[in-house]
Amino acid sequence: MPAKIAVIYYSMYGHIKQLASKAVEGAKTAGATVDLYQFPETLADDILGKMHAPPKDAAVPFITPNDLKEYDGFIFAFPTRYGRAVAQVSAFFDATGSLWATGALTGKFASTIVSTASQNGGQETTHLTTIPYFAHMGIIYVPIGYGDQNLLNLNEIHGGSPYGASTHAGGDGSRQPSELEKGVAEYQGKYFAGIVGTFVAGKAAAQ
């Protein structure tokens, strides 16, 4: 039985969505069954309009807390806000209290993809400040290390760290994810799916 993985993103201007889509591609090459979701929006339409945010992709469903129970692992992809996850992600995590109370996510796996405006905008802190949620839920966090040697590339400015893929959007959002950054996201999807798939196969064989 292949691993079931949900890639769940929040992306106001499309930067994170690009990385999430590459993670989906990578996970599928590892043989996983993969579904793409969005975090629910918390901002009103008039506020989004003032922020010149494009419409959400109607083809990608919004995740619900109960959906999480159906998957072996999750790749969460979202921008940073002052060194931590944006409010939309925090609001969703806060809505999973019943899953915490029942231990419904214990033993599942998670990995994170992030973005910032600048090089020093808090990419690693955003990964780090999300790990406590995983700990409370009993979710096993999977970093990527330096398995993708592109993370060591010093010839260009790029996101990405041993915690996971990331991108720099620029202060005005004009910078798009580079090929290197998208490649790291694809690697992350493949690596994560391989880890989760190995666990799922081993668990099935032990039963």
UniProtKB/TrEMBL annotation:
<dbReference type="InterPro" id="IPR005025">
    <property type="entry name" value="FMN_Rdtase-like_dom"/>
</dbReference>
<dbReference type="GO" id="GO:0003955">
    <property type="term" value="F:NAD(P)H dehydrogenase (quinone) activity"/>
</dbReference>
<dbReference type="InterPro" id="IPR008254">
    <property type="entry name" value="Flavodoxin/NO_synth"/>
</dbReference>
<dbReference type="GO" id="GO:0016020">
    <property type="term" value="C:membrane"/>
</dbReference>
<dbReference type="InterPro" id="IPR010089">
    <property type="entry name" value="Flavoprotein_WrbA-like"/>
</dbReference>
<dbReference type="Pfam" id="PF03358">
    <property type="entry name" value="FMN_red"/>
</dbReference>
<dbReference type="GO" id="GO:0010181">
    <property type="term" value="F:FMN binding"/>
</dbReference>
<comment type="similarity">
    <text>Belongs to the WrbA family.</text>
</comment>
<protein>
    <submittedName>
        <fullName>Benzoquinone reductase</fullName>
    </submittedName>
</protein>
<dbReference type="InterPro" id="IPR029039">
    <property type="entry name" value="Flavoprotein-like_sf"/>
</dbReference>
<feature type="domain" description="Flavodoxin-like">
    <location>
        <begin position="5"/>
        <end position="192"/>
    </location>
</feature>
